[in-house]
């Protein structure tokens, strides 16, 4: 089961969370409960945590400081922040440090449980992904050593020719005096190739076996489905290599390829420069997926759009996107995203993560302005965007999510009739206990937003309105021969003692005293 740590400076809230939420139903168990951030941080540093529920405002170390310390320590649990204050700056700060969710007190249990369900699904997916990567790494290590660190070392300006030659030999190159040409290959599996179209773990072994004796090369795994080869042009004509790789991908893997070919080099410094330019130019395939082979030397690389840089830029873009969604204007969203295609310099993973962050901010903006959650975004994780193999796929996903948001936003319509509807519901069910969750669900609003709307329209909280309604009804019944306990049950209280307590607080006297005054008035009038 996944571990949960609960943190709040109010002990009753911690206890209510621990015993009021069916943690086991979602695959969690509470492993720590703390009343300040410092003690909680020490526990998390020593024992870890999969999910952290923390209050924002606490003495000694507040929730945002706790999140920063965890991030600095390299610990990345799913952090759900709790706050009694509807301040958007908190949501912004939380998202900036990788927070998972933000909920207002008093907590809506259904909303919290839905968030826990989503977190559980994501944690299971991440656990499966870690196991899959370990399996893939074991295959990679059987062919060579660890790839990326050695490639970074090869590209380091301080690396000498002899050390570079050793690295290339360790990664498969046999020739002593090669003419090396960097070639970046991306394998694009068909959707029939398995879940999410991922390649089988043994494809690297197949690649080595297929080309052994035909081409001499060193192979570096860059990321899943992407390899960098330093190919010796002297063994076979370089023009034959792309055709052979394409045939290998089709016959052995059942997939297509993209390829970026760099300039050949006989010395280390030109080779390093050629590899760097090849890696940068390979990004073009993400933006222009119809192009199969790119010559890196012919690719001019432009700077990314300035509005994409930094947190503030992303917030501005997401606010624009939110406004477009509210105006049902998807076309402008398409046009705006297409600007990326004219500036193909951002790393594809950066673009995918930027898309995900945009929708996270959209959710926060919508909650801030309307007090209602956009459920279309529940379960939308970064992996959904990272699995897109091209900008076209990414745009299609973004447009699809935006259309869902528009449809959902249209359904969230608030007006004064909702308050009247809530009042009528309270009167209709006055003879039994009524919860805020029950009423807010009846009027189809979040609990927090309903409370704010009701007070704005009536100058009373819903609880104050309900109490006045019960007390006024009790006043009417006290003129009858009904016993006090019967009146209590009639107006929705469990016993006469509780009715007496509420009645005295509201009216200034007990029900018995009020009944006596009514009796005296009736005698006097007679």
TrEMBL record:
Q: Does the keyword Coiled coil apply?
A: yes
Highest taxon listed in the record's lineage: Bacteria
Q: Which UniProt keywords apply?
A: Coiled coil, DNA-binding, Phosphoprotein, Transcription, Transcription regulation
Task: Please give the coiled-coil regions recorded for this protein.
Answer: 109-136
* Residue span(s) of domain HTH araC/xylS-type: 420-517
Q: Where is the Response regulatory domain?
A: 3-120
The record's section on PROSITE patterns has: HTH_ARAC_FAMILY_2, RESPONSE_REGULATORY
Fetch the PANTHER family from UniProt. Answer: ARAC-FAMILY TRANSCRIPTIONAL REGULATOR, HTH-TYPE TRANSCRIPTIONAL REGULATOR EXSA
Q: What is this protein called?
A: Response regulator
